[in-house]
Design a protein that fits this description.
The chain is mostly helical. The chain contains 11 helices and no strands. The chain is globular, with a radius of gyration of 16 Å.
Length: 194
């Protein structure tokens, strides 16, 4: 019963479309502009720097909140990770947006910041380095999350490895169109207006 309640709470918290709420307050429907994504990168392209920052913080906080909530109810390390994944799925398939949503990068990082802090730090550093060098946010996400299982293996306990692998797979699947555009050379760079 406890796990069912936490799973529902995790999905609902993850489903809160922070970027869409912020953009709507400025008269913009994120699903109809730019990439159609509700994350911080599309908010940056369509709405500006400050709204994008608030979106990033909000999406990050969703992941943190769910893992902290699961920890409060003492469900164990594996189920804490499972709740984190459910929050990411809530963000990606929001109940408030007809089960459409974002890519889950910021929410995943929020989960990791509590669940596997050192691995989260490595992931952020890899993402920032890749974006700084290439100006492709999607490439930063793909490279940093492909490295996540190795980061967890090196810097955390092996029992968290299944969660890291699942999280990486989810993120890669959500970025499949970005990967195609990167290969084709048509992916938009950070800072480019929609």
């Amino acid at each position: 019963m406890k796990l069912a309640f936490l799973s529902l709470a995790a999905f609902l918290i993850g489903s809160i479309p922070i970027g869409q709420i912020i953009a709507r307050s400025r008269g913009i429907d994120l699903q109809k502009v730019g990439s159609g994504n509700i994350g911080a990168t599309n908010v940056l392209r369509t709405t500006g720097t400050l709204p994008a920052l608030f979106t990033l913080i909000g999406d990050y906080a969703k992941g943190m909140a769910v893992v902290l909530l699961a920890g409060f109810f003492d469900v164990g390390i594996l189920y804490q990770g499972v709740m984190g994944i459910i929050a990411v799925l809530g963000h990606n398939f929001s109940i408030f947006l007809n089960f459409k949503g974002g890519k889950g990068v910021a929410t995943s990082l929020g989960v990791l910041s509590i669940y596997a802090p050192l691995a989260a730090l490595v992931t952020v550093i890899l993402w920032l380095m890749t974006v700084a060098l290439t100006r492709y946010s999607s490439l930063g996400a793909v490279i940093s999350f492909c490295s996540l299982p190795l980061s967890v293996f090196l810097f955390d306990t092996k029992e968290k490895l299944p969660i890291a692998i699942i999280m990486s797979i989810i993120l890669l699947v959500r970025h499949k169109e970005n990967i195609r555009r990167l290969i084709a050379g048509t992916e938009s760079k950070v800072g480019r207006k929609a």
